[in-house]
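Chapter summary example.
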Amino acid sequence: MDHLLDLFLSYLSVERGLSENTLLAYGSDLQEIAQYFKELGISGFDEVNRDHIVGYLVWLGDSISDRSKARKVAALRSLFKYLERIGKAPANPAARVRFPRFLTGLPKVLSGKEVEALLEGPDVATPLGQRDRAILEVFYATGLRVSELTELQLHQIHLDAGYLVVRGKGDKERLVPMGEWARDALLEYLREGRPALLKRGSVQQVFLNHRARKLTRQGVWKIIKGYAVRAGIRQNLTPHMLRHSFATHLLENGADLRSLQAMLGHSNISTTQIYTHVAGVRLKEIHQKYHPRP
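The structure predicted for these 294 residues follows.
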């Protein structure tokens, strides 16, 4: 089983071009499931049937969310589809396993005032403050994923034209425009803050920590949470919430779904459509709050 798992993960990496984070998630889920099968006395994936998979979901019980269970089923479906294709499994026993039902909550977003308070937080008189202002402005102006921001390299920035060339999921490139606020903050950081942090060396990633190394995803999370507390934002602010805010505020101000899909890097527009529901809910709240006869 372990050998076939390694083959599958190599296939996802080389042929499908999945990101390192996605590969880690697939690997963790599938290794856990394979261990469960081994404890049942199953020695190969060709012995697994639908009842074994359903039994695994029952065994999980309430230990994890239905969303996490659905992710594990999706991983198994992909694995067995691959094994069937290379002749290592007679059929796909996960194909007829139903995904656990879970409620899809609407993405949480910041208000305009909260965004303004957040962006005003960094002290731009210091190199780290210049970096942090650039990070926050770029996040809100472009809707990047946190991994896209941490991996952003100097050659991907086109300040004169006002856009970034971003490498996203599936190693796909997309062009993302940014406004003047983000461009100016990024320019100031590149001219002053970044050289002060770099000191020497040739790191290609744009955003650096105080040790002159590229910022990690965890480092960005800490930065954002710190400024959220400073701005009095009570929500548990994450980089992805800034992405949600970017998308929702664009729609509220008249952007079309297809353009938003391209900027977010969604392969399917149905993923982008969730933001129409968010915008609708927010408009309803505004109507109830301000209309004289709500």
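To summarize the output: The first strand starts at residue 157 and ends at 158.
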